[in-house]
Amino acid sequence: MPATPAWPPRSAPRLFVSPALATGEQRVIDGPQAHYLARVMRVAPGDAVILCDDVTGEWATRVLAAGKRDVTVEVVERMRPREDVPDFTLCAALLKKPRFDQVLEKATELGVARIRPVITRRCVADALNMDRARTVMTEAAEQCARTALPEIFAPVTLARLLDQWPAEAVLWFADEHGPDDPAVPAAGSVFASHTGPTGVLIGPEGGFDEDERAQVRALPQARPVSLGPRILRAETAAIAATALWMGTTGDWREPPAA
Ligand code: SAH
Hints:
elongated; 5-stranded mixed β-sheet; CATH 2.40.240.20
């Protein structure tokens, strides 16, 4: 006998909604999400839509009615619980909008728990549109099938970030002078030495100034690391360091043997 075809299909549209979903519920989706479903994806009654609520996880739903302004679905069953997210905070200096958008999008795909935009002396950008940042991250999470949205914080100054840094969390400091300093280890050889809550700090386009480097190094939880012999653009450094941490210490590894 042929196996039951997989339902919902992997290609079904995915959206984050709130509040939390429950089996049997009818949910009305409106606004830009209804436009996306009805006009872009052209869903019709009976079609599958996958919804995530960032609380209980990922749900299969079936379209009951698709109008111009709203789409009504019936919540059928939960497919996956909300994922466990490694406790990793990307602390990235604010960059000009398109480059910071890349950081938000890629960090979401790579699996970070939260992003803390940081304002430093050489930052060219000094503000972040939080609604837009949330939209970029939500779309990235939908696209890569995450069931948890990363948190985004309002930008803080470097001094404040350091002041508020939790005592138990290590802050790996991507120091662009690291490659020239034999005392600074390569990130790939030290990341896995700490498995608890972790952050990585990346500077802006123009790097950190000397005072800032001294301030960061004075924080007991901060540990300078090098990201290799080349000077990376800030967004490349943020994305590369996050991928390296996920691969060595986060959830891209095999689980430890029991
Ligand atoms: N304009 C600066 C470079 C800034 S690169 C200069 O020429 O010195 C932007 C940020 O990316 C840096 O502040 C640092 O946090 C990170 N970064 C880039 N390349 C790095 C490397 N090879 N090692 C460690 N950090 C790096």
